[in-house]
Input
Amino acid sequence: MARPRVVDTLEFAKNTRRTFTKKEPTEMREYGFSWPTRFQHVGDSLAVAYASDKWKKDGDFELYKHLAESPNRAYCVPRFLSPYGGSGEYPVYGGAVSLEGVTMPKHIAILGYFEEADLRLHVGEDDDGPFLGEGDEGVVRVLIKHALLAGGLMNGDTPFLVVYSEPRGSDKGGVHMIITGDELDIEADGIVG
Amino acid sequence: MLVDLVINCFAGNDFTMKVLGELQRPHVTFFPRVMSKPGKVTLDWEGAFAKYRTLLDVFHATPGVPAGAELGRVAVVGFSEGCQGVRRVLGLEDASELDVVIPVDGIHSDYLSETAKIIDVSLLKNYIAYGRLAAELPPDHLESRILAITHSAVQPPTFVSTTETGEVIWNEVTKHVAAPVTESLDCGWACRPVVDNFELDNVLFPNGDLPRGSDLITGAGTPKPTKIASITDAGVCITREPSPQTNFAPKDVFCWSGFSDGRDIRRVANGLSVFGWQYPTNTRRKDFTGNTDHIFQGTVVLPYMVRQYIVRRWNSTCGPQDVGVRSLDGSACTVNSALGYGKRSTPPAPLDNPFPLGVPVPSVAPVCPLPPAGVSILGRPGDPCWYPGRDAPSAPSSNAAANVLAGAAGLGMGWAAYVAWRHYARKR
Output
């Protein structure tokens, strides 16, 4: 299966990091994982919380939570979500999407330590595809240990968020979830849209 | 010297600007400076016009206006979110002086109740007020005005679609307009809306504007020119690339054979036109994501609407005209009907509040799938579009505007079939 096309986005990543944290980027790391070929569109992202020392001295972390101001879509790698304290897969509706033909970034900007994501998962599926529930039906809190939140640029002009973890011991790490939105952007004020 | 003004809200692609270049009289184009709202990603169209009270203010702030120039005719065009700018212009203190208003696939509103499909019409009142002025007089009347709305069948996730707002504006205008709506079958084949429809139907691709083998490009001469479409024997072909905006739908190509390919909704009341594009698919869109339908509106429909409703209205016409359905002996050159700023019998004024007694709460009929030719979609009991039997209407439609447009269209869809379809659609 064809993989997404990966292009150099070093300048975007540096600029994003510089704008978002109000600090000069000082470090670049290389990871061994690559972009997954397929994701599952599990529903909408309602909020993403992260800890960052942006606009402050290094190490002075504060917790921030970006509340989606417009529809933010959440895509997880297949079979990623599992019930808290349980085992196996969390039942999730939603079609698989392929990143074939999509231009993905080689460089991403770390925004902070991932704290949690609040997702509104699809609660069913009919002839028109998956659908969301009423009220807080299907709303879940997603926790990932040791994950990071970063920003990237897709197709050369579309900012998106990526949740990933670094390799630790036998865990190879990798990309767990991406969040997109027509109005989503990363600015000096924080994540907007 | 009289100088005409075109206010351009997010509608400045190369093709549209080329068409505006066909205007014979001196004109200037005003591009509002639109910034993001503080802390938001949405653009601040209110703020873009905040320092202008009148069209004259806008005119004098437009680059390129010669010293001592007087304002002539005024048009405003907008595409997509630019229609918020159009709405703002309609709120200026002398908006009655606008000669042509063309909002393309961007008039939205909010739902007061999403489940009951109750639409907040307060966001539409400027359009409704101007629409009533436009609907009062035939387009070739000396004091006429034009409101020409187009829309695709794109369905936004949480707010009111352009299809729905088009229907609400049409309904609110035609049920309140003071003068009778005369552009019906009674107006005959030579009336302006019929001619406009005929001419737009004859815009087929490829053509002289969009020749076979060429690309439709915007931003030519800039560091980042963007290819919008390829022109092939199949017409204007727009490629949908996989992207988050389309939920990563696989790459596909969609072609339009002509301006009227899918122009299925045709409502005309004097100077008010509402044209909607839809297709016999489950989503009513050519591209199920709506992505390329919207692009087609902005890059192809928009420039041809500008040519039909601004350039042809404002330019002089000379010599015999033969559009296939009429032949006029115009041996002398004549300036078309549009009047310049301040030349109407009534002084410049703000638009009336269309709802002095309060805002109504209109709801729209559920959007139902279009039946393909010869097929009735029955659905299941309980479906909003369910119809308990095959449709066999016997009475003709009383919708005069729909009738004349069916006749004018001549789209290969028979008269009876069209009337039957209108009847079918209305019964549900």
Observations:
- The interface with chain A takes residues 39-42, 157-158, 241-245, 247-248, 250-251, 282 of chain B (CB under 8 Å).
- DSSP finds ten helices and 17 strands in chain B.
